Structures are given as C-alpha cells and as structure tokens.
Amino acid sequence: MISLCACLAYGSEELKLPASALKDPCISCHPDKTDFRYVHGPVASGDCTFCHHPHETDHAGLVAEGASLCFACHVDTEGELKKKTVHPALSGGCTSCHDPHGSAEKKFFTAKGAGLCYQCHPGVENRLKAAKSVHPPIQTERGCASCHAPHASDAEKLLPKAGKDLCLGCHKGLIGKEQTVLHGPIQDGACTACHDPHAAPHEKLLIGGYSAEFYLSYSESAYELCFGCHNRDLLRFPETSYATGFRDGKKNLHYLHVNRKDRGKSCKACHVVHAGENPKLIADKVPFNKWSLPIGFVKSETGGSCAPGCHKKYPYDRITPGKEAAPDKPAEKGRAKTR
Predict the structure, then answer these.
(1) Which whole-number Å values give the CA distances from 235 to 174, 218, 256, 259, 317, in the listed order?
(2) Parallel, antiparallel, or unpaired for β 314-317 and 303-306?
(3) Through-space distance between the first and last CA atoms of the chain, rounded to whole angstroms
(4) Most exposed: 47, 49, 102, 119, by fewest CB within 10 Å?
(5) pTM for the full predicted model
(6) Across all residues in the chain, what is the average pLDDT?
(7) H helices then E strands: how many in the chain?
(8) What is the number of other CB atoms lying within 10 angstroms of the CB of residue 241?
(9) What is the C-alpha R_g of the chain?
(10) How far lies 50's CA from each of 13, 70, 198, in Å?
C-alpha cells in the first residue's frame, strides 16, 4: 500500500496511482466515508479525487462549489433546473437530501421515504399524525415523490402534472368519457377544493364533514363540505324566490327533501359528486336498500321533472308551479350549477 505521506509528497495526478491506492490513504483518516449499503460511484471506484482536491482548494476541500460539483456528472439534473419551479432545497446544494458518500437508502438519501421531506416540512408530518385518513402514496417507499418531482417541475408545488390530471393518473375510473358534466372544482382542475392531498380529519381525505349516510337529520353543522362552496340558504327556507332553482314557484324543493329531522336525504341521494351525464350532476339512479331506482330526471328551461321510483312523477316549474314543461334544449355540458 502506498503511504499517506507518499500521496502527499507526490500528488495523485503526478503519481498516477491506481484507484485502490488513492482511496486507502483517505480511509486512514476518514474510515466513516465508505461503510454504507449504497455507495456513491466515485467512492466505490476508490478515487476520492473525483470530488475532492487532495491538497488545497477554494471550495472547502472540493474541486468545485456546491451543486455545480454534482452537475459535472449529473448533467440531466442540471437541465431540469430550467423548469418553472425549482426545489428550494437545491439552493443549499444537493447534500440537503443526498449524502455524497453513501447511505443506507437508495439514491443516497439522508432519510427513508417521506421522512426525508419531513426534515424540512415538519408541518405535514404533524398533520399526518393527527389525521383520520392519509393519502396512501405518502406511505409507500417513494413517499412524497409519488406526487412531487424532487428537483424541478413546470407545474406549481413541484407537481409533475397540473391539477386534476395528476390525480386522474391514479384514479383512472373516476370520470368516464360519457360523463361530460363536471363538478365545478373538477372543471377548474382543483380536486383539492374537496380533498386534502396529504391527510385530513375526515374519510376519503375530505377537508370537511360529508356523511356516508343516505338519510341524514338536518342540522346547521350537516353538509359541512358542500356548504364550503354552496350557499346554505338553499336549505334554510321552505319558500324562496332566490336561494335555489330547484323550486316549484316559491316552494323550495331542496328544503322539502333535505331539511328534515327524520329521513332527510343527503346530497348524494340525487347528485353524483365528481362527474355525470345529466345536467346539475343529477344521478341516473338513486340507491334504495338493495335496489337502484332510476331517477328519470328531465330538465326544462324553467324547471323539470323526476320520477325516481320512491314517488310518482312530479314536475316543477319556477314560473308556473306544477307545469309539465317541454324538455330543455340538449343537456348542458361542463360545469354543474345549482338546479
């Protein structure tokens, strides 16, 4: 073995030492830099001078400063940084997340899975501990990288795709091709209007209360999620001229169906929550015990009618109460509005 003194005397470039000899004198002082499950290539090759100058340098012992040293080999990562959103951690260099010598984790991460991200984002970890539901991808080996690009992205928040396109990459069957009437938040591309992407105090990552029950006794605290956007007035008055379009003259049919102490109908009794084929997100069928009863909804310009199996066909009209109006023009496409 060539001694450390010999290395210092002649310098690695002049001596043209074999890789194993170059590493040995370094290990004599730095034995903790090679004992890893996953070892960085330059360390594994035995040539520490890939990254370190053996004698003196202006860069704290390195041959180049900060991330520019890494980019000498990882040119693809440097190219990523031209994107619109760059991970702020890179301002501190690649060693904010990677150990430059080796690690017990793949890609030389300094911590396992999402635990790496929690070193800078402890607030997310704290929310997960108190949450009733946690987004499953966070708990996989990929952790936060399941949804976030680790270096840079052209979308906000380091997301590889914007808005609902990212979510639908996993939730493929959520919206069918024939379902052209979209819930407002989905039309805007924002699933996060209803779902927290990390963790939430309610089932299905919902940011507000939304009962799983079909029948629900009405209270001011009920339908918390829905009334984060919709005006609760549509359930407050038995008669109204403004709070809802679902009325027969001034008779408020939302109030009639929902605002009841006994067997009030939840929103999902009549509406689908993500996307549908009918105007106003009216469902094709309504569940009733083990059966699915067709709703038979027909929309008109000033009202409509339905015949769901739980009662006979009832027309409603905002201008002429009880009028059996002609069907509306072809069904609306796109955003659903209050009926």
Answers:
(1) 29, 9, 8, 6, 18
(2) antiparallel
(3) 85
(4) 119
(5) 0.80
(6) 85
(7) 11, 16
(8) 11
(9) 31
(10) 12, 10, 40
